[in-house]
Design brief:
2 copies of one chain form a homodimer. With 164 residues, chain A is of the alpha+beta class. Chain A is 15% helix and 34% strand. In chain A, strands 3, 4, 5, 6, 7, 8 and 9 form a 7-stranded mixed beta sheet that branches. In chain A, β3 and β4 (37-43) form a beta hairpin. The longest helix of chain A has 13 residues, at 65-77. Chain A is elongated, with a radius of gyration of 18 Å.
Chain lengths: 164, 164
């Protein structure tokens, strides 16, 4: 039914009136650099187990976007990062996700696989395993990072027009 | 309990294993200009009924951030807007919200109160009813808009350091 004052169909409990609002999810992550190399994580879990991704995951309750991105780098790559600025906001409406991707750098080069990673690595740009990236937005983030790595004043990117 | 592969307490159904992940919510909105004036909406609903706000609200499922911000301006002010760029990302961890605020302009000056607004108005900067703004982030968005209204290349703002 459409709750009073609303304009969309929602699941509403006929007994108590509880409205089960379903909301898009926020993914926070980062493109993390160390001396020109970029941190990638090989996924140890589905979906896309065995493919490479940027450290990223769901924002938790009571967490800022920046804190969430730093936590994900810690959890997935045991990496201590410093957030520089917002690189991009990608909307993935098919799966109701908004991804906030930051540009960051490693505080020290120590990295190690966390429980969700089979491996972690610092890749030179030329070595990035493009065919083995886990998700399209991983490639978007890497390319947008590359386009602006020596600039600080630019609007954040959104999804590339070509979707690739 | 902590579900397998997770590292935080979640509500889990003992019968079927369903994990009730609770997630932060995404608010999308905009600072909308027309000939130097700024669109504000007087809230017709709680919380903060009678106070002035920027057109903003919860992102819906299967919606991009930009489409959501345009929808909110349409719903709250019957306004047809053109999004220019992302102005700010505010994190409100106390209430588990991330707010994506865009800079936008009216396509035409026709505005009218939608069901959630008592009134809508285009304010000159000097006329903005500062003591009657609905939420702190409304003031943040207005001041960040003002700081950068003649610039296009700047990183999006996050919460002001002073919280005011």
């Amino acid at each position: 039914m459409v709750p009073p004052g609303d304009n969309m169909e929602r699941d509403v409990c006929a007994a108590c009136g509880f409205v089960d609002y379903k909301n898009p999810k926020i993914v926070v992550g980062s493109v993390v650099a160390w001396e020109g190399k970029i941190l990638l994580c090989k996924r140890a879990i589905e979906p896309r187990k065995g493919y490479w991704t940027l450290p990223a995951g769901y924002l938790e309750l009571h967490e800022t976007a920046e804190d969430g991105a730093a936590r994900e780098a810690r959890e997935e790559a045991c990496a201590d990062i410093e957030i520089e600025r917002l690189l991009a906001v990608y909307s993935i409406p098919r799966i109701s996700q908004v991804q906030l991707m930051f540009r960051a750098k490693l505080v020290r080069p120590d990295i190690a696989p966390g429980p969700e990673s089979e491996a972690v690595a610092l890749y030179d740009w030329e070595e990035i395993p493009w065919p083995d990236l886990a998700f399209p937005s991983v490639g978007w983030g890497l390319r947008h990072y590359r386009e602006t790595k020596d600039r600080s004043d630019f609007p954040p990117f959104s999804n590339p027009a070509d979707g690739l």
